[in-house]
Design goal:
There is one protein chain. The protein has a single domain (4-247), classed as P-loop containing nucleotide triphosphate hydrolases (Rossmann fold). It has helices at residues 50-57, 78-83, 101-105, 107-111, 117-130, 146-158, 176-193, 204-210, 228-232, 237-244, 254-257, and strands at residues 12-21, 24-34, 39-43, 65-70, 73-74, 86-89, 164-168, 196-201, 213-218, 221-226. The protein is globular. By secondary structure, it is an alpha/beta fold. The strands form 2 sheets. The chain has a 6-stranded mixed β-sheet with strand order 6-7-8-3-9-10, sandwiched between helices. A 4-stranded antiparallel β-sheet has the order 2-1-4-5, covered by helices on one side. Helix content is 34%, strand content 22%.
């Protein structure tokens, strides 16, 4: 059985990362550092560059400029790829609907013939237990709640014994109780297997609830990095608007709630038989 207790997290350094698409600069000199075993949350609104940044950190994109280092070594260097293990938990979970929970979790090991079937079964059981889903190996994804699917996705990431796990909006589309459960899984993994966790999210409750440190990103730039309480007190006007933004009935104009009527000439005509 996999001995998760022997794992050690890695450090991550991002220096001056830039990326443009069709002349539009999405990442504008992003820099930050993550310590081994840290829970580091990059928080920002939709369209701020979070997901593009994450895709660079897991090697799915190449930057136009800048460096990404794991324990001081370039991310794409052959020695780094051979020595360090990194995993990503996708926002959607990305489970295979036609495979059972156990088959989903053990897919990488089986596909690459890395372990014997019996050993894969033991690893799958161990990882599912870590995320609180013991005994679910034979269930199909369609039988699971949204929160359970997210936990299966985390278990699948664990089978490679990662030293760095990157999470893309892990509480997206979840109800409050399921979000708390996912947050608990992330914290427990950090405590029990010492993995470094990097999370991109717009979920303020998640960020302030579990992060060791938080970076705030907007329009491709890091605006602030610090302890949760320091971020809450940051005087930057945009950060304060983002943190305090709530839907208030009295701030919504009545006309915003009414459907726009089509001009008389544009109204639908009966279909011709």
């Amino acid at each position: 059985m996999t001995d998760f207790s022997n794992q050690q997290g890695v450090s991550l350094q991002v220096r001056g990362l830039r990326k443009s698409y069709d002349g539009h600069e999405v990442l504008k000199g992003v820099s930050f550092e993550v310590s081994p075993g840290e829970i580091f949350v990059i928080m920002g609104p939709s369209g701020s560059g979070k997901t593009v940044l994450l895709r660079h950190l897991v090697g799915l994109e190449m930057p136009d400029a800048g460096d990404i280092l794991i324990d001081g070594q370039a991310l794409q260097a052959p020695d780094t790829i051979a020595r360090y293990r990194e995993a990503m938990v996708f926002q959607s979970g990305a489970l295979f609907d036609s495979l059972t929970v156990g088959e989903n979790v053990g897919f990488y090991l089986a596909e690459h013939h890395l372990k014997a079937p019996g050993e894969i079964s033991r690893i799958v059981s161990a990882t599912l237990e870590l995320v609180g889903l013991e005994g679910t190996q034979d269930k199909m994804p369609a039988e699971l709640s949204g929160g359970m699917k997210k936990r299966v996705a985390i278990a699948r990431a664990l089978v490679v014994e990662p030293q760095l796990i990157c999470y893309d909006e892990p509480t997206s589309e979840l109800d409050p109780l399921s979000s708390v459960a996912i947050a608990g899984v992330i914290v427990n993994l950090n405590r029990n297997i010492h993995v470094t966790s990097l999370i991109v999210s717009h979920d303020r409750d998640l960020a302030f609830g579990i992060a060791d440190r938080i970076a705030v990103i907007n329009e491709g730039r890091i605006l602030a990095i610090g302890l949760p309480n320091a971020i809450k007190c940051n005087p930057d006007p945009w950060i304060q608007r983002f943190l305090k933004a709530t839907v208030k009935r009295y701030e919504i104009a009545r006309e915003d709630l009414q459907p726009h009527e089509a001009p008389e000439k544009a109204q639908l005509q009966p279909a011709i038989p």
